[in-house]
Amino acid sequence: MISGYRNRKALRNANKIKKESRPMDLEVEVSVPDHFLCPISLELMKDPVTLSTGITYDRESVERWIFEDGKRTCPVTGVELKSLEPVPNHTIRKMIQDWCVENKSYGFDRIPTPRAPTCSSQVSEILAKIVSMRAKRDSEGVIELVEKIKDLANESERNKRRIMLSGSGRVLSETFEAFSLDVSQENASVLEEILSGLALIRPFDHETKSGLGSNQSLRTLVTVLKQGTLSGRRNAVSILKEILSSDKTKLHEFSEIEGSIESLAKLIIEPIDSSTTSASLLAIYHLVTPSTSFNQKKTIITKFLNMGLTEKLLEMLVDCSRSLCEKALGVLDGFCSIDEGLERAHTNALTIPVLVKKLLRVSDIATEFSVAILWKLSKYEKSIGHEGDVAMEGLQVGAFQKLLLLLQVGSSMKTKEKAGELLKGLNLHRGRVECIDSMDFKNLKRSF
């Protein structure tokens, strides 16, 4: 247990605090009462709550234990909890507040009284009203109630968890589906408001995904992607990403909707922000790398290729964040699973320099995708009778040294096998081109 605190404003981690009214050479230790400390964090409790076992904890710590870590036992006693709902301990909180006031000179500020978290009955009441308004087709009433849900969710993480556990996702997804039956200008606002509410309470449970994954809801999501406001399109693609990544049966259904592929590609070609681009790339990745029929995948990829997405991805890869880089390379690897995609990548002057640049400099995932694409391009060259172009260009930009280093550091066996094959091909042409002399290994963002 922690028995002493220093003046938090001056020396937060010190063990002793000097009292201003005493001589400078006299140190005074301030002991925090043990029952004021959270048994989990060992810190002074800001919002003490008591579990069914009678042990008091700080709300943030114990709710993380229960809801994030998934534990169903008391952290101290190990006894299974009869109730997962912590009860506010007002007596201890008042005692802590009084103690902080008494020790203000030592830097202890009075802990403010926490706002009471939302309760299940309050959320249930709002959801019941949404169902009632939905039956009356009262879009304005639904908008007002969804705004209340959003306000509560934005207040605190514990409110958000309570909202999620109360079945809000199911109610909102059913409401979205109901208003999707009439995608008119009048309903556009309520549909986008529901999407903004849903975007706050992810990840979705099975029932929520089922409602949003219905054919009618998917069609409405595509409509929002094509015609919605910037925030509407942002929320729609983030929700679509959740559906496509968790339910592979929806991939074909979504791709068959008119304008679906084009609306996703447009979010890459005309980006809104990095989070929207990231969600769009992930949705596209699931569409172009499914374990379904090859003809279906080829049709989808061809649509993306015809919109110039290969060129856009390569431009993006020149300078982008790690997250976007990994997703863009994943999509590009998916495109290169068909000959048309390989042809586009092979004829683009940026392809080889960009792929070699990403080797060992971004992440293991980026390296694996880059090696996979280079390997596919090398195989493709042999099939079209242009063997050697990729090898010579790769040698000029330092591929040999990077691939050789890759064999010596940690990576998957499959990636090492592909890197080995590429090195054999590069070695055949080393005497024909002038390779770069060395690499700036000191800047490699990788621990050896």
From TrEMBL:
Q: What are the residue boundaries of the U-box domain, all occurrences included?
A: 31-106
Q: Name one GO molecular function term.
A: ubiquitin protein ligase activity
EC number of this enzyme: 2.3.2.27
Q: What class of enzyme is it?
A: transferase
Q: Which UniProt keywords apply?
A: Transferase, Ubl conjugation pathway
Q: Which reaction does it catalyse?
A: S-ubiquitinyl-[E2 ubiquitin-conjugating enzyme]-L-cysteine + [acceptor protein]-L-lysine = [E2 ubiquitin-conjugating enzyme]-L-cysteine + N(6)-ubiquitinyl-[acceptor protein]-L-lysine
Q: Enumerate the PROSITE patterns for this protein.
A: U_BOX
InterPro entries attached here? ARM-like, ARM-type_fold, ARM_PUB, PUB22/23/24-like, RING-Ubox_PUB, Ubox_domain, Znf_RING/FYVE/PHD
Which pathway features in its UniProt record? Protein modification; protein ubiquitination
Q: Which domain of life is it from?
A: Eukaryota
The protein in question is named U-box domain-containing protein
- Which organism was this protein described from? Artemisia annua (Sweet wormwood)
